[in-house]
Amino acid sequence: QVQLVESGGGLVQAGGSLRLSCAASGSIGSISVMGWYRQAPGKRRELVATITKGGSTNYPDSVKGRFTISRDNAKSTVYLQMNNLKPEDTAVYYCRAVGPWDYWGQGTQVTVSS
Fold first, then answer.
1. Distance separating alpha carbons of residues 28 and 39, to the nearest angstrom
2. In which band, very low, low, confident or very high, does the pLDDT at 73 lie, cut at 50, 70 and 90?
3. SS3 of 30, please?
4. In the prediction, which pLDDT does 27 show?
5. How many beta carbons lie within 10 A of that of residue 25, not counting itself?
6. Burial class (CB in 10 A: 0-12, 13-18, 19+), 32
7. How many other C-beta atoms lie within 10 A of the C-beta of residue 78?
8. What is the mean pLDDT of residues 97-107?
9. How many CB atoms lie within 10 A of CB 93?
10. CA dist 93 to 37, 46, 74, 109, 111, Å?
11. Helix-strand-coil percent breakdown of the chain, rounded to 5?
């Protein structure tokens, strides 16, 4: 079992920055990929960023150049640095860990005001 706890969400003005954290505990050695996803009201959950155990990252065009995912293996924590935030980035952001099974955090709200 893997437990994920997100933190760092909040309210920010457009153009501002936030950093999300996802602390993993439990059978973390089994995790191969970690990622951030988001879901806005009335929309499907979508990929924001992923990072492999080896450090390879992936982003959709909508956040590329603005968001950066990183991991601190010593702290078993994954971060999402979000810069130049836009109102359309408003959503609940979820941390995901992929291994033999799929694990999700409880989500953290990010609201970007115009």
1. 25
2. confident
3. helix
4. 81
5. 11
6. exposed
7. 27
8. 93
9. 23
10. 6, 10, 23, 6, 10
11. 5, 55, 40
- Neighbouring C-beta atoms of residue 26, cutoff 10 Å: 14
Q: Which long-range contacts (CB under 8 A, 24 or more apart) does 40-43 make?
A: 40/88, 40/90, 40/91, 40/92, 43/91
Residue type, 94: Y
**How large a percentage of the chain has pLDDT more than 70?**
100
* 100 band by pLDDT with thresholds 50, 70 and 90: confident
pLDDT in tens, 39-62: 999 999 999 999 998 899 999 999
Check residue 20 and report its DSSP letter.
E
